[in-house]
Amino acid sequence: MTPQERVHLVDLVAGRVSNKRLAHILRVETLAVRLARFWGVSEEKASVASLLHDIVRDKSESSLLEMVKDEGDPLVREIAETSVSVVLHAPVGALIARRDFGVEDPEILQAIAQHTTGAPHMDRLAMIVFLADYCEPGRQFAGVEEVRSLLFSSLEVAMLRALAQTLTYLRGYSRPMDSHTVDAAAAFARLAAEDPQQLQQA
Ligand SMILES: [Fe+2]
Ligand SMILES: [Fe+2]
Predict the structure, then answer these.
(1) Distance, CA 172 to ligand 2 centroid (Å)?
(2) Please, which residues have CB less than 5 A from ligand 1, an ion?
(3) Between residues 73 and 154, which one has the greater pLDDT?
(4) CATH class of 3-201
(5) How far is the CA of 40 from the centre of ligand 2 (A)?
(6) pLDDT higher than 50, residue 202
(7) pLDDT digit string (tens) for 87-129?
(8) CA dist 63 to 52, 59, 101, 170, Å?
(9) CA of 54 to the centre of ligand 2 (A)
(10) Which ligand minimizes its atom distance to the CA of 112?
């Protein structure tokens, strides 16, 4: 992606989301690209995935469901069954990234699809987009500093903490939990237990 192509993509995204959302998206991109550089992941993929991650975030639940009505992709179909409607914009965003923006790279599409709930098996790009979304400088909530402090020592431990915080928050407010988040938290906890080396790095 040339700088001009990136500017063009930002323009297209700006045409589909609110100004406030665009500002969030650009902050996610900045942090994700920094993390990609640090962790040896493609900065271009981090940029594209970040710019498109919330592409349908401002659409209503009914229009998102309409968009996936005839979709054959099993992941999208499965997530569309969720009881937690806010997570729907992630897999639908991946769908739109492919359909309207011509993104074919499976890692980018997966990072977009997994950015809200996380998943048991995430590659580095997906963890980076998830964590950049969670930690971008506009985020201010109890616990965010703890996750920020882990970003450059262990992506896995940062994921573990972010997912655990999310579940604690949802439980505290008796909010419904998406099964992918529960499964992802369990998987990262297992990983940390099996590989304490990663915890020590943190
Ligand atoms: Fe999102
Ligand atoms: Fe986001």
Answers:
(1) 22
(2) 54
(3) 154
(4) mainly alpha
(5) 22
(6) no
(7) 889 999 999 999 999 999 999 999 999 999 999 999 999 999 9
(8) 18, 6, 19, 25
(9) 5
(10) 1
Digit-coded pLDDT (tens) for 12-28: 999 999 999 999 999 99
Cβ-contact 138, 24 below 8 angstroms: yes
pTM: 0.92
Between CA 65 and CA 3 the distance in angstroms is 34
Using CA atoms, how far residue 189 sits from 52, 133, 163, 199, in Å, is: 29, 21, 10, 11
Helix axes 106-113, 124-135, angle to 10 degrees: 40
CA of 87 to the centre of ligand 1 (A): 8
Ligand nearest to the CA of 133: 2
Alpha carbon of 164 to ligand 2 centroid (Å): 18
Residues within 5 Å of ion ligand 2, judged at the Cβ atom = 54, 133
Distance 192 CA to ligand 2 centre (A): 26
pLDDT for the residue 75: 67
